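# nightly structure sweep
# worker-07 picked up a monomer target from the shared queue
# config: single-sequence mode, recycle default, output format = structure tokens
# input follows
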Amino acid sequence: MGRDQDVDNRKYEENSGAHMFGSDEEVGSQIPTQAQAVVEGSGAVLVSEFRPVPDVDYLQELLAIQQQGPRAIGFFGTRNMGFMHQELIEILSYAMVITKNHIYTSGASGTNAAVIRGALRAEKPELLTVILPQSLKKQPPESQELLSKVKNVIEKPHNDHLPLIEASRLCNMDIISHVQQVICFAFHDSRLLMETCQEAKNLRKIVTLFYLD
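# output follows
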């Protein structure tokens, strides 16, 4: 009976598109997050994962983070997304802030802008930090207008000489260093975002990845 149930569970996971990151040989349990409750049924494919390792201390750490309530969460994602996805991200960001989580994100359009708008609606400015890859003047006008409403904006003018992709990579690593959990919205071919998620997992952060394709 137990073996039949395991087979049914595996079939369900394959059909739903959910899987665990890590090597093919690794098997782990999916940890429910607030994100799942908010976006369930949106049509986005949800991947909630962490790197399963035979490390009791690490597993205890993950459980402690889940049980401690409010935590620091980094939001990453593509600039290219439809209005519906942006609305869902706004709702998720708003929900995270009103439950006293501290949100970290960057200042680009698309995902970052939706996160910022949602967090601002929660009217808890101290729980939103935006870290820019370069100086504020390097951001497009629409981003500057939105960022003018954010209390905590960290600029990186010393990266103005770098190509945006390199400055963004450094910015993402900086955000990861401040958070316990990462939530990312990406396409399968979003190379920088995939690298960011992998780096977060290497640093033993909880990573929740939403595929948009």
